[in-house]
Inverse folding.
């Protein structure tokens, strides 16, 4: 009789453990690093996006101004982020963003989603995407578009990112 009683007790605990771990995994907040690289000192847009991401339930880490690609990649590794949002207005996007993507790959972080917002000419977008940038948000993009993109893509990032085909 004792064996039957223990079995009845163990089954619900096992079921609870399975459901609880699935619940915890499904409830993990998306972690986003928001970065301002280079000499660009204008961070109002980055702060607006950071606040929108936070309000959408994401955990946001803001690096502050004048970060190097190495500092951004290191912070991404240390903070174990799912995505990096880079705000750049200086025109150095064709140098800085490929370097960030290269450093992430070198650290085995090719699954981190890299997004950029700012003044990016249309003709530069294909090269940035080829370098590893998932999406470019130009002036006028809504914060909800950014939130939706992150939610739709952060969990499906692989070594051959789906956004490369878009």
């Amino acid at each position: 009789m004792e064996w039957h009683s223990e079995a009845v007790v163990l089954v619900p605990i096992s079921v609870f453990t399975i459901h609880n771990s699935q619940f915890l995994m499904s409830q993990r907040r998306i972690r986003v690093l928001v970065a301002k690289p280079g000499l660009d000192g204008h961070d109002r847009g980055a702060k607006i996006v950071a606040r929108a991401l936070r309000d959408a339930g994401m955990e946001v880490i803001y690096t502050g101004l004048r970060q190097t690609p190495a500092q951004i990649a290191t912070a991404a590794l240390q903070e174990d982020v799912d995505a990096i949002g880079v705000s750049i207005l200086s025109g150095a996007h064709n140098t800085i963003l490929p370097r960030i993507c290269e450093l992430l790959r070198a650290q085995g972080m090719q699954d981190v989603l890299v997004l950029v917002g700012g003044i990016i000419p249309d003709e530069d977008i294909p090269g940035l995407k080829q370098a590893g940038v998932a999406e470019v948000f130009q002036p006028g993009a809504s914060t909800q578009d950014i939130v939706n993109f992150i939610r739709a893509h952060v969990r499906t990032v692989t070594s051959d990112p789906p956004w490369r085909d878009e």
Observations:
- The longest strand covers residues 83-88.
- Strands lie at 31-35, 59-62, 83-88, 113-118, 135-137.
- The chain is about 50% helix and 15% strand.
- Residues 1-25, 156-160 have pLDDT under 50 and may be disordered.
